[in-house]
Design a protein that fits this description.
- This protein is mainly alpha-helical and 110 residues long.
- The chain has one domain (17-95): Orthogonal Bundle (434 Repressor (Amino-terminal Domain)), CATH 1.10.260.
- It contains five helices and no strands.
- Helix 1 (17-27) crosses helix 2 (29-54) and helix 3 packs across helix 4.
- The protein starts with 16 loop residues before the first helix and ends in a 15-residue tail after the last helix.
Amino acid sequence: MEKTPRPRGRHARRIDLDTWIDKERAASAEFNEVYDNARRATELARILAKLRRRRGLSQREVAERLGTSQQAISRIEHPDYRGHTLRMLARYAETLGARLEFRVFEGPAK
């Protein structure tokens, strides 16, 4: 019987990322908060970029409509960007024929 070679390098230790995240979230309130913030930022960036692509527009075209630069649109659509303003998000949505809605929920943040 021949042994299967042991994985080396980047394949040496694989982990189930979802399981690891679940364990970290259960163990650390700080990790949970950072994770939730990153998830929301990523979701916002994806929604904005997806909306733009559905309209068949480039970042440059949206920038021209908003009177700003392509780099500014790229930043708005980036998950790490933290400089969003309500006004800019509303203008971005309106430019693409959408509307921006905010909801306030009573109780602890999820």
